[in-house]
Amino acid sequence: MRPASPSTAAKFRDAAFLLPVAGFFLLLPPVIDLFTARVSLFGIPLIVAYIFGLWSALIAIAFWFSNRLHDPETHAHVPPDTSSPGR
Amino acid sequence: MLSPNLIFLTSLAYVALLFMVAFLGDRQARSGKASWIQSPVVYTLSISVYCTSWTFYGAVGSAVRNGLEFATIYLGPTLVFIGWWFLLRKLVRIGHMHRITSIADLISSRYGKSTSLAVLVTLIAVIGTTPYIALQLKAVTTSIQVIVASDPGNLANPPSSDPANEMAFWIAAGMALFTIIFGTRTIDANERHHGVVAAIALEALVKLFALIAVGLFVVFALADGPADIFSRDAARILQTEDMFDARWIALTFLSGIAIICLPRQFQVTVVENTGEDQLRMASWLFPLYLLLMSLFVLPIAIGGLTVLPEGSNPDMFVLTLPMSVDQDFLVLLAFLGGFSSATSMVIVASIALSTMISNHIVMPIALRTPWTSIERSGDVRRLLLISRRISIGFILLLGYLYFRLSGKSDALAAIGLIAFAGVAQFLPSLLGGIYWKRATASGAKLGLLAGFLLWGYTLFLPSFEGDLLLSASTIEHGPWGLELFRPQALFGLTGQDPLVHALFWSLATNTVLFIGGSLLFEPKPLERLQGTLFVDVFRTPAGDEHRFIQRSASAEDLFILAQRILGSNEAQRVFREFAEGQGLEGDFPQPTDAFIAHLERRLAGSIGAASARAMISRIVSGETISLDELMRIADETAQLMEYSQEVEKKSLELEATARELRRANQRLTLLDAQKDDFLSQVSHEVRTPMTSIRSFSEILLETRDLSSPQSQRFLSIIHEESLRLTRLLDEILDMNLMDRGEASWNLHELDAAVPLIRAIESCRGLAQSTGSAILLDEPLPSALVDADPDRLQQVVINILTNAIKHNTSPKPEVRVSGKLINDQYEIEISDNGPGIPSHLRPFIFEKFQRGAAQSSTGGIGLGLAISKEIMKRLGGTLALIDDRRIGTCFRITLPAKRVPPQQQEREAG
After folding, report:
1. Long-range CB contacts (< 8 A, 24+ apart) of A36-44?
2. How many helices (H) and strands (E) does chain A have?
3. Domain made up of B630-739: CATH architecture
4. Is B126 within 8 Å of B398 (Cβ atoms)?
5. Rounded distance, CA B587 to CA B589, Å?
6. CA-based torsion, B503, B508, B514, B517: positive or negative
7. How far is residue B34's CA from residue B193's CA, in Å, rounded to a whole number?
8. What is the share, in percent, of chain B residues with pLDDT greater than 70?
9. For chain B, which residues make up each domain, given as ranges?
10. Are B631 and B595 in contact, with CB atoms under 8 Å apart?
11. B644 interfacial to chain A (CB closer than 8 Å)
């Protein structure tokens, strides 16, 4: 499951940072005010469907990310002494 | 209708089950077999201690009163957990590295292992948690009263509170007993409680199952599916128009803080964590748990409002709804769910708080009394255990007292939010501590104290509605009638929800003072060190601590100390392991800085960082913290952070260049060696004929009466030697000329077979003299090529000569074959000799390579290099064929121009 390249891993780390930020943004006014209309989706009020739908989506994405996040140390961390001849 | 006895027996049986699970869990963990206890699923379930009876009963009540607001309490933690990589992972890593035992320990450890800070955090935590525990007692007693005392018609009237007090007391006592038995059996090295975690995980399943069961019952038995439920009066509950205001934002934020800062959450998430993989799964599984817990809150709320009589207590809908239709089993299940939620919270919270009280309040006091008193009183461990047990009882007693004091407040949710806002005061110091190196203890203390006082003044005390410290008129009009200081409209900030108001003032002041104080006061060396270790936890190994702190102590003193805290077996183990690591035999390691730091961390795992440091400090001498070293590492890591990307790229480029250079260098060295070899070879080759020419000419000059045949012989030797010399020099000259492209060429069209056959013929003499055979497979094909016949002949002769000369086989033979493939004239010359050793193969065409010349036959190894160069000039190739197992095979190719005329004629005729 380990991502093939360091840049893929870095992409996942950036995305993982954005996920809660995006979730927060989508759950706060003014975005959430867009879904307060009194309409129903299959009998469920729109706002309820929105909140629980968004919630499920966040969980699904977090699940997808969970095994793709890895420490950068393994590839990005470069010890300061690159001068040693063995390397 | 359920009888009181049945409720009582069921509760008892359930508690017995919990005991059993906790006991088994403890025992298996001790014997090291308990992989299931450390599984990420159990870990996640234990985090769900977040869902207390406030969730189980209160969420529905909250939904009835404030619509969707209940969801914020679960959305905040969801956001924190899906962002685990950035905050929770760091907390967990720090917790592991520094053996953190509680949130007070983390904050104190970060700010220079400050005892006063630990005490402050502990006090805030205790004061903030007490109402929360009271809330659980209230929920359980109310639920029992509701079930026992009410017939469905009486559901609207809350039962009287007198018997409740007695009941609450026994419930509190029972919980204290359970917690003491499983929470303080030992002082665990890492402050982990496997048995408790197992029991909590079971309770998490029970409450989830119960709430879902009630929810499904409401949606599908009392109503006709979700659409039907929402068609009944949903709009009144949802109040969507003015729902999403400052309070919504504040609550989402606050619950996100609470999942980190609540002492019990810190306990299960950070302290009980055994590996980052647990967090990996919890990052999505815990939000999923929260989602499932929230899924049926709205349907149950709507169901309660429409099915139950007007005025029923919405906080008990989860119980009263199944009661109203006499679903006894479901009622019992719901009761157990609520019971589970309450007990798990109380157990974990009191463990977390008792650890804090014993480590940060009792231990420092014990340490302040003269050292001998602890020595005489025996084991520090026993002191710790006893103080923890007493603390648990004390905490539950406080909760019980609060319950009696605030008996009249009906809304469960309000109490929970007050607790949240209290522990939220930890946030600035916590976040600042792990992301900002400059944060200091002074700043943290100022911020925490101010935030705590403001929280108390604007939220906690007013919640008593005049019964505690602040009178009703003070709350209404401000102290001494000063309107500016009205607790719920501080400095004229009116029109805000009290919670938002309190949160704003307390957290804003807290943050400003924290940052201001940190900037104003210089950090002490130890704060600076801990700051670096915490902020750079992913870069600086904890074992590095000893680089900065130099201390000395005797191994015996350290051992006596360790024995008191860890117990003698564990202390012996720690000492022996470290001694082994140092490569020493015996039980005592060298008391190096590294060992003292290691031991201090081990002790911190039992008694907290501040106490561990205080105890170690008593027996070490000459402690110095090397600031220079600290600055150096801080600079190093800061630079690393900034340039790590760049460095990575650069170093990759560098590596590639270095590889190139290394290769070039190797080649140069090799060439240099070859040149040296060549020169010495040439000198040698020139010297041999020169010597014989000189000596023979000397003989001729000096000896007068030399017979004619003798002088004739000498002269002919001289002649031969000078010819050899000339040949040699010619060869070198030839090579040189060819190198510079100045050799003379006589190119013209000819039949390739002609010079080949001539070359073979001229080698026959040599072949016969060595007893080898030259075999021609088939007659060589004819083809016109553009070539210099002499040069081509020279190449073939060279290869043939080599093949004959170097052949050591008993029946030497050289095989020649020619083919015309497409437009290529191809000649293969192979022998059955010893072949060329594989390590020489890549070099045989190199100039100056004398691999071949090292044999007895002499020569300076220019032949093949010249041949290769010739073939290149002729537009063909000379290659060594690699696939032979025996002997050597060379292949010469030349581009053929066209079929020779006589063959055309034959075809035509």
Report:
1. A36/B240, A36/B241, A36/B243, A36/B244, A38/B235, A38/B240, A40/B227, A40/B230, A42/B227, A43/B225, A43/B226, A43/B227, A43/B228, A43/B230, A43/B231, A44/B226, A44/B227, A44/B230
2. 3, 2
3. Orthogonal Bundle (1.10)
4. yes
5. 7
6. negative
7. 12
8. 84
9. 4-411, 425-540, 547-625, 630-739, 748-908
10. no
11. yes
ipTM of this complex prediction, to 2 decimal places: 0.83
d(CA B366, CA B194): 29
Domain B748-908 top-level CATH class: alpha beta
**A43/B80 CB distance under 8 A:** no
**Token output for B811:** 């029946």
CB contact under 8 A, B85 and A16: yes
Whether B616 and B561 have beta carbons less than 8 Å apart is answered as yes
For chain B, first and last CA: distance in Å?
123
Q: State both tokens at B331.
A: 């009622």
Tell me which fold the domain B4-411 belongs to.
Answer: Sodium/glucose cotransporter (1.20.1730)
Residue with tokens 């599916």: B225
Distance CA(B118)–CA(B106), nearest Å, equals 9
Q: Do the beta carbons of residue B831 and residue B814 sit within 8 Å?
A: yes
**pLDDT for res A10:** 77
The model's pLDDT over B439-473, given as tens digits with 9 standing for 90+, comes to: 888 999 999 999 999 998 888 888 777 666 677 77
Distances (CA, A) of B147 to B2, B208, B314: 7, 20, 15
**Strand extents, DSSP E, B501-651:** 549-552, 621-625
DSSP B491-508: GG--SS-HHHHHHHHHHH
The C-alpha atoms of residue B493 and residue B470 are separated, in whole angstroms, by 19
What pLDDT was estimated at residue B205?
93
Q: CA A31, CA A29: separation in Å to the nearest integer?
A: 5
Looking at the complex, report in whole angstroms how far the Cα of residue B261 sits from the nearest Cα belonging to chain A.
18
Nearest to B426, CA basis, from B506, B527, B344, B328: B506
Interface test with A, best of B41, B78, B281 (most A CBs within 10 A): B78
Residue type, B248: W
Cβ–Cβ contact B298 with A under 8 A: yes
